[in-house]
């Protein structure tokens, strides 16, 4: 789960990091008041869970409350890479001496936290990694031991920091590691981390991702989850405990098991189609859940055909078929639906479906045939 | 032979009285697995389908000689359950639980460095050696004994591929679901090593997906160290960046983590890589010279 | 460093454990006021850093403030195994259901914290260990991982606790582990830990030892160190940064290096003498430090001869001899002193000593001869 | 041959610019030890008696090929220094520092289980292989090369015993001061194993003292596993209960920790145990058939 910049900064401040003074505004009027309160030059920054807001015009630096109001007027409601801006962060300024980069992430390969630090901040770190890899210091932390003083020294010395910057960054790193650990973050990134002319070290931006699996011990963070910002289908799926990701195509896809569904998407693409979504209904053949999943998938206006790919395992093919039939009975979907049923008792399952299903439901024996059929039907079909 | 679990496996079920634990204990018993003990704190002294229940893993292992454990406890308690198994000297620990926090798993993985034990999972379907031992939630009726090893990050894709094999009368030594989480106890390489060392495994199927770079690491290992032929399949070519595709670990977040990058690395290492599950069965049949 | 019962209980309370209401008193009047404030039956307990105060009459249970005053009158100033009582703890009572034992200590062999728990509390745990070893639950904690929930369950289940007792002891154990870790304790022991009729779990006594090497990060604990209670020579030695332990004999012993001094004590005993002390002056030949050490050792009235056992290593024998001479010059000790000098440049050192020392200083070549001589001189000598 | 340190030891000094570090670096250089690097944070780029100084151990090891480290940093920073050496891949780490907190050492000891490294100390005089390498604060002029291994919890007692040997023209392979703290990185047994495996060591002297039960453990090991004769000496028969005798670990706190208990265990295991340091020299001379 990603946090908005202002939420991430709250987390950082809770752990002793310094940020600029900032106020969240949801309307131009609030932005004006915030600018008045902060005084002087302020930045009005779109709060969206995606990068590149600067290039998209989502950040404006202004000199008066009136201009702040105007800027907020323009930014609020803006669409940045499919994300609608619903809040802006109004922040004061700082006299910047230099910009740095600092992050801590879970490194999957090493299974340890990885610290990345660079004195080349404010730019895309992956670009720095390519053009000037020596400018990035990498330090792994042992998760049981925690961050050690010598590792902080490695970061500071290897990047050539001295004086206030060295002391400030060392302190920030220790606090950031505590924040990373206590918040169960999979990523905390500060870019840029700035040294001010006054010698302070400030987090000018923040990108924080909290491990979804840890939310049971962070109920406060779960509450922050911004339901408005989510896609309506994704939001419904989440409430129904379904794994659903919206895509751009027209073939709606459902299946049981994440790997099988991913594979189904690929096979549809190989057959020349475009998947409209990823939807894993999970194990079992609960008719109600299948009905809800079908309804979510088909409520996407772009969907022209549906492919339901099932592997009968512990839940046998015949049981799955009955569950699907019962789900179809309670729904009013008239889009073509291709059902591919494989695994234990698959033949029996297919027989049940063929004998009882409405006209718009087609069965296939193999994944490849089913994908081809669904793609064809999407091309022909429509509503 | 089989890897990880076989007829000598004496299994202990952690969370045996929970919904999932109870259901799958019944299934594992039906498969002929030696389920010798269950653990549910506070229910020590009771039994479930004839399997004695203990309050602690240490006591259960001491009393029953259990040498492996399978974990069905809820996510908040899963890491504790793993530590308990490791500290009780169990050699193979299989954590089925989905949703274990990543920070918990970093600590567990670190601790594994001190222990002579193998952790499979979490968020995995388990391990099954056909007609020897079923320490999993996998449907045993699609399996048949034979000489193909299967290792996979995904449950249902494993079933799909095993089914493709069995339908072609190609049996399996062992199928290992290593789990779909970002941090898992045992990666592809460790399992590939076990299959390579197993004289009965004549071919290995490796099923990967988007996220991380474990497949690339495995490719390097296969090229450098393995004699046994390996057939690979990767899912997730159509996955968009930054979206979790069902499995917590299945997320494209940078060049290495894409299905393309993984497939290319595998092929570059000389590993035959199928484009769909059916093709996996076809390639294995070709390698083993099976016609049907 | 051992804490007094009342200090240990403060530590426990800081970490969420429950104790009885208690007030420290240094005079009978204060004890009376404390008993008035607490009300009802109170216990007046000697605060000394040694066991067996109960048997020595150091604990009295009384029913009124007047009796409390009387009890304190008797206990304050009392000598318990060489420890003078300077404070009493006046504590309220509790209705006790059962007595248990709980401790966490540093296990040297395993290099890990070891938890001991028994439902047979209030008695000597070593006795329980001998007569009924199964009544003690032992659990080792991995120092990097910390105490895990399953380990708490092991303690609770293996000792057969249920209900309030199980819950209460589980909570106490978790808190006690935190206290043990955060205070850098080498031992925290609660004996008895009681279950009250009301279902609470209380620490009725406390024995806490803080690792001396950790005191730099516990300045508050260092301040609690009770200088009054220490032996005057031990106190002076501590201030002079000398390792000194007072013993019962009449041969004063000094040397460089703890092992060598321990060995010297043994050799003196083997020669039929009784060491008066252990005193390690450490490396180097700092005349001032040697003078201070000599002064401390001889300020013990029982000492009748002194054995100074030196191994010249990095500091060569001749330098040591000069340091010793200079120390002797500045002191006015007329007790017989036997100097044994061995190691690098030992001959040269002995020559320097023999040429320049006053009559009461004797040199020997071997440890055994020196020990014999010092024992003889102690027998003959006196002051 | 020697154990732990020899002519191939490339030594790094942590805390090289401190009073103790600088003094003993000079001495170790005089002994002919290959001191290749020093570390003092903030003094990187300087040198001390020709030895280059670095800010971090990792950089120092990378630049100079150091394979061992000796630590002279103050107690509050000693554990950090040990972790730094272990993480930088140094195989032998010798911590001279006295006064390292016990809880720090429990964490370090636990971490050592994950590392392929040997920690000697803390609170120890170090390791010295005569005329090969001196990684210690021991006076090298009392040593002479030969075939007796010495392992001890005490510094000056080691010197005393080595002197007894040298005076009898009995030389040493290596002398190891394992340290006088309650928790040390390497116990008697590990060192005894190394001496047992060393073909040049014909006799081992083991010097123990009150506190703990490491001597008893060692006695069992000697009886069960060692061919090389062992001569023991224990100090502290006259130590009262509950008093720390100089070394933080030298304290009688229960039956096992007394000198009597240790001596008895050693003798029961068939190990000849001297009653004073001089007798150690005499027994070794007898075993080796040296007359003088």
Write the layout of secondary structure elements.
The complex is a heterotetramer, with 2 copies of chain A (383 residues) and 2 copies of chain B (292 residues).
Chain A: E1 2-3, H1 5-14, E2 18-19, E3 22-25, H2 28-38, E4 42-46, E5 59-62, H3 65-75, E6 79-80, E7 83-84, E8 88-91, E9 96-107, E10 112-118, H4 125-131, E11 136-140, H5 149-158, H6 163-182, E12 185-196, E13 201-203, E14 207-210, H7 219-224, H8 232-239, E15 243-246, E16 251-255, H9 258-270, E17 277-280, H10 287-298, E18 305-312, H11 317-330, E19 337-343, H12 346-356, E20 361-364, H13 367-380
Parallel strand pairs in A: 2-13, 16-18, 18-19, 19-20
Antiparallel strand pairs in A: 1-14, 3-8, 4-5, 4-8, 6-7, 9-10, 9-12, 10-11, 12-13, 12-14, 15-17
Chain B: E1 10-14, H1 19-30, E2 34-39, E3 47-48, E4 51-54, H2 57-64, E5 68-71, H3 75-87, E6 92-95, H4 102-112, E7 118-120, E8 126-129, E9 133-136, E10 145-152, H5 155-167, E11 172-177, H6 188-197, E12 203-209, H7 214-225, E13 230-235, H8 259-268, E14 272-274, H9 277-288
Parallel strand pairs in B: 1-2, 1-5, 2-4, 5-6, 6-7, 10-11, 10-12, 12-13, 13-14
Antiparallel strand pairs in B: 3-4, 8-9, 8-11
Helix pairs in contact in B: 3-4, 5-9, 7-8
